[in-house]
Task: inverse folding
């Protein structure tokens, strides 16, 4: 196999791998920019993945596959936003510590998806999922065409959301309110920003995006649902937000780096170079730890009020 | 407001929040049960009373109390010290590997030497694994929640890799079934059974003794005071000359030691070999037990019994009513959310004041000597 061919194969695999991470991490970025550290991302992704899978699975013999898929996507977005708001109730209104509350939300989402799936769906079952859509003309470009323009529509959406998130955060009044709520909530409050409402909004948006990330896993990447489908991607997404220094473009870089490493590992195995499967599977998790160590202590440009509940009545 | 009335309202307020939080948690679980067409009432009754029907059920509850107590003690130490250990699941597995390795490679040592050595190896395994996260946090500022979660995934892969390869039972290779498990460990590392007819073992005594020791160390020694001070108010502790970073690492190592020991005891007492799905989620359930027990050994032991009951009860509903055992995760999740919310609402003086105002407005709480705005 030629080097170019190998590189091509890695890229074709790696680009779609990054999408679930990218969607969830862009969403988590809104949460963290608003000052809320939502570790429940993993649980939200599980619920999104399961609910997106449910309508197409129920309609698998009915022939309404497009409608069912759209319904699934809507459910994933809806449950994501809802769970985001639930997390807001716990951490913004009740001011519970965010780290441990996030673990609770993760267990809840994971547990609910697993319980209902095992009851109705049983074992591992596939769905048709969302077919790839080749972008006209662009997909015919050699090399670049197959790498970038022959994917599921959600892939294009995810990458379009990178500049869109940046624009929303840095070029709109709402984005300014979000960043203020996450950096100087007291100052924001004194300027008339409703910090709590802003955090709720950011959590709903972030949750919906995590739900969509889950939907991508069940409808596009795996085209099936299992309890452990998400497999820590929600936690990796949270880590990517640190790695990307709270910038949508940085996050995209991190997501691509991760998924390309994963694709490289798969391509090496396909090429017949033997090393233990388990060591390959643990690679992304080791990378997260290394990356977090390198991202290190500097909180530069980050939301300084991250993780701190805001109470306008509390004196400081 | 007069002291007695204040106290009376305080108790009513705390009780009210606890009741509301419990109802919310039960209702959330009920919604999920309704979604799968199960009767919430019947399911809750089965979970909560099913295991108590006979002595064997009770012994099974206490059997699960052992790892739950051990893991939760460690988690309580870490939470009290200001570092969140989510990695008990992985620490349990590394602990099992440590225990199994010693038992496999030194099978001819006398029991009096081998059993303690193997248990210590298990605790050390967990301690080292957790120590990684502790050092990363104190030296590099790596968020310990993320690192411990990642270490869980890594430990799971190391565990299955070793059980499928280097540590696999040679009989499995000969018979060709290839079940990933170690060979049966020598009898000298088995913990004694407490009774005949069930699986309850001396690990229970060990767990209770360690619960007492944990209380002693945390509340009656300078070392424990340092840990708790670092967790309660890191800045103040630092001004007082406490080496906060060192405390974090120490707390994490202790937490991992407990989790590793839990894994070792589970092998020594129940399975007598390292098998693939050994933990059964004790690492995560331990977090709930620690919180439910108020991060205090005296609360953790009964909380562990209660969650042992939930685990056994959930197994029973799976068999009798077809409710998937994942339901336990749902309950654990809502219980965590309910506990952390309730604790903050109870501790929030402003929320309490608002509740008092509301109670006065609705005429539930009459206080003749009320003064303006005071709590």
Result:
């Amino acid at each position: 196999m030629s080097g170019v061919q190998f590189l091509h194969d890695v890229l074709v695999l790696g680009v779609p791998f990054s999408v679930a991470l990218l969607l969830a991490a862009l969403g988590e970025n809104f949460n963290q920019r608003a000052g809320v550290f939502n570790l429940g991302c993993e649980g939200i992704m599980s619920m999104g993945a399961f609910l997106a899978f449910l309508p197409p699975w129920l309609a698998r013999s009915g022939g309404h596959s497009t409608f069912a898929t759209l319904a699934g996507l809507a459910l994933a977005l809806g449950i994501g936003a809802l769970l985001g708001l639930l997390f807001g109730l716990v951490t913004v209104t009740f001011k519970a510590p965010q780290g441990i509350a996030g673990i609770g939300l993760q267990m809840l989402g994971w547990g609910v998806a697993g319980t209902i799936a095992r009851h109705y769906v049983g074992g591992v079952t596939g769905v048709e999922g969302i077919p790839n859509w080749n972008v006209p003309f662009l997909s015919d470009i050699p090399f670049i065409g197959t790498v970038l323009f022959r994917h599921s529509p959600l892939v294009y959406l995810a990458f379009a959301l990178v500049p869109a998130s940046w624009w929303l955060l840095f070029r709109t009044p709402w984005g300014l309110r979000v960043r203020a709520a996450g950096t100087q909530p007291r100052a924001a409050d004194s300027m008339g920003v409703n910090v709590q409402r802003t955090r709720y909004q950011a959590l709903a948006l972030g949750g919906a995006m995590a739900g969509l990330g889950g939907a991508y896993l069940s409808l596009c990447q795996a085209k099936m649902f299992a309890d452990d489908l998400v497999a820590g991607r929600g936690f990796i997404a949270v880590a990517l937000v640190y790695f990307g220094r709270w910038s949508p473009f940085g996050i995209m870089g991190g997501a691509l780096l991760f998924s390309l490493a994963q694709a490289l590992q798969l391509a090496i195995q396909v090429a017949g170079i033997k090393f233990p499967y388990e060591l390959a599977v643990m690679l992304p998790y080791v990378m997260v730890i290394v990356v977090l160590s390198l991202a290190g202590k500097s909180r530069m440009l980050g939301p300084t009020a991250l993780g701190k509940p805001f109470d306008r009545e509390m004196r400081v | 407001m007069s002291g007695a009335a204040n106290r009376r309202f305080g108790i009513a307020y705390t009780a009210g929040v606890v009741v509301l939080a419990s109802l919310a948690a039960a209702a959330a679980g009920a919604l999920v049960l309704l979604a799968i067409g199960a009767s919430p009432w019947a399911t809750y009754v089965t979970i909560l009373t099913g295991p108590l029907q006979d002595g064997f059920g009770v012994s099974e509850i206490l059997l699960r109390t052992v790892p739950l107590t051990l893991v939760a003690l460690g988690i309580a130490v870490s939470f009290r010290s200001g570092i969140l250990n989510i990695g008990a699941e992985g620490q349990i597995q590394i602990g099992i590997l440590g225990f199994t390795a010693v038992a496999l490679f030194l099978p001819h040592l006398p029991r009096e030497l081998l059993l303690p050595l193997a248990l210590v190896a298990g605790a050390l395994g967990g301690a080292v694994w957790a120590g990684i996260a502790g050092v990363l946090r104190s030296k590099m500022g790596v968020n310990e929640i993320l690192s411990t979660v990642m270490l869980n995934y890594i430990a799971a892969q190391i565990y299955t890799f070793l059980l499928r390869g280097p540590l696999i039972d040679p009989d499995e290779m000969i018979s060709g079934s290839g079940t990933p498990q170690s060979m049966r460990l020598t009898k000298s590392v088995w913990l004694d059974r407490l009774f005949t007819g069930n699986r309850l073992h001396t690990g229970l005594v060990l767990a209770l003794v360690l619960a007492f020791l944990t209380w002693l160390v945390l509340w009656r020694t300078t070392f424990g005071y340092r840990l708790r001070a670092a967790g309660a108010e890191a800045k103040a502790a630092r001004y007082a000359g406490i080496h906060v970073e060192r405390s974090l690492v120490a707390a994490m190592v202790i937490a991992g030691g407990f989790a590793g020991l839990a894994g070792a005891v589970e092998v020594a007492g129940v399975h007598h070999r390292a098998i693939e799905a050994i933990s059964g989620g004790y690492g995560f359930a331990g977090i709930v037990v620690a919180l439910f027990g108020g991060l205090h050994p005296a609360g953790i032991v009964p909380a562990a019994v209660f969650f042992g009951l939930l685990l056994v009860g959930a197994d029973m509903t799976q068999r009798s009513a077809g409710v998937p055992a994942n339901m336990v995760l749902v309950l654990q999740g809502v219980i965590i959310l309910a506990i952390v919310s309730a604790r903050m609402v109870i501790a929030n003086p402003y929320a309490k004041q608002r509740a008092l105002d509301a109670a006065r407005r609705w005429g539930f709480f009459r206080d003749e000597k009320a003064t303006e705005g005071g709590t």
Notes: Chain A has a mean pLDDT of 86. The domain at 3-124+143-295 of chain A is CATH 1.10.3470.10 (ABC transporter involved in vitamin B12 uptake, BtuC).
